[in-house]
Amino acid sequence: MYHLGTTVIKLARNVPRKRLQDIALPFMQKLSAETGEAICLSTLHDYQGVCVERVEAQHTLRVSHDLGAIFPLHAGASGKILLAYLDRPIQEKIIQDIGLRRFSPTTITDSKKLLAELAQIRKQGYALSDGEVIIGTFGVGAPVLSYTEKVVAALSLSAPTNRIRAKEQEQIVSLVVETAKQISEGVQSQEI
User: Fold this and answer.
1) Residue 59 and residue 40: Cα distance in Å, rounded?
2) All structural domains of the chain with their residue ranges
3) How far apart, in Å, are the Cα atoms of 96 and each of 47, 74, 85, 91?
4) How confident is residue 74, by pLDDT bands cut at 50, 70 and 90?
5) Which of 9, 37, 135, 189 could lock 159 by a disulfide, CB 3.0 to 4.6 Å apart?
6) CA triplet 93, 95, 100: central angle to 5 degrees?
7) φ, ψ for residue 49 (rounded to 5)?
8) CA 163 from chain center: how many Å?
9) Which pLDDT score, from 0 to 100, does residue 62 have?
């Protein structure tokens, strides 16, 4: 029987790997070109989300994300994706420690309701936001997952609500989810 020796494993670990942003950016650009909307890649930092890569929308009226922008985990599509894929005790600790600040009338501020929505998000594989952080915006988020099914990032699309009609939401959700899966495959191919 053949086994990889420790030297081979050490060498494999030293093979340069692409950064998450380098893997994601071409897929993000394609998604933005298909939809015309802003795309953001976010990761978890402490008890907050942070935008680590972005592609601007092609419209004059648009939702914009600054690189390094920090946002809450309990409101908005990206934040809810990052929170939904954490273990339940960690979710509860984050909710207890940070609270559930209201940003708009649609922000979820009840912990039981939020935990139920997080379970649904994890089950369906995407999150929606209808002005939860900024009134008049619509967002869709999907997880970028490691080989072990741990969330490494959230991919999201943001747009003014008036540009996303109900009948178009399903198509946009499909595009975001599919793009997140493609990025996940790229991430997983880099893992050893």
Assistant:
1) 16
2) 37-185
3) 11, 11, 17, 9
4) very high
5) 37
6) 165
7) -100, 155
8) 21
9) 59
Alpha helices (H) in 2-155, listed in sequence order: 6-13, 20-35, 77-84, 88-98, 111-124
In angstroms, the first-to-last Cα distance of the chain is 21
* DSSP-derived 3-state class of residue 155: strand
Residue the block writes with tokens 């929308």: 57
Angle among Cα 18, 72, 161 to the nearest 5 degrees reads 90
What pTM does this model have? Answer: 0.85
Which tokens in the block code for residue 164?
């996303």
Which residue in the block uniquely carries the two structure tokens 């139920």? 116
| Rounded distance between C-alpha atoms, residue 172 and residue 93, angstroms | 32
Q: Alpha-carbon distance 149 to 30, whole Å?
A: 24
- Spatial CA neighbour of 39 closest among 150, 183, 190, 170: 183
Which residues, listed in sequence order, are joined to residue 153 by a DSSP beta bridge? 144
Integer Cα distance of 182 and 176 in angstroms: 10
CATH superfamily placement of domain 37-185: GAF domain (3.30.450.40)
What is the percentage of the chain residues whose pLDDT exceeds 90?
Answer: 66
Residue 101 to residues 29, 60, 104, 106, 145, Cα–Cα distance (Å): 32, 30, 9, 11, 28
